[in-house]
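[Q] Does anyone have a clean structure-token version of this?
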Amino acid sequence: MELNPMESKVLEALKALGATGPEKIKTADDVMKKSDLAKGVVGNCLTSLVGKGAVKRVAREKAAGYYAIQQA
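[A] Here you go.
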């Protein structure tokens, strides 16, 4: 799977935050603070990563949560 540098940074931030399963989801704000990227960039990357199957989005009452899917 090809990732651009921003997507890679967002994915690494998710992993660094420990968001590696449905019980450990993190918000886009958490990723934004960890990755030092703008919120819009993080949002776009998360959407793209969900589309590529690298990240799972969990809809919640307030903010959606995200976690990295372990790649084989």
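[Q] Thanks! Anything notable?
[A] The mean pLDDT is 94.
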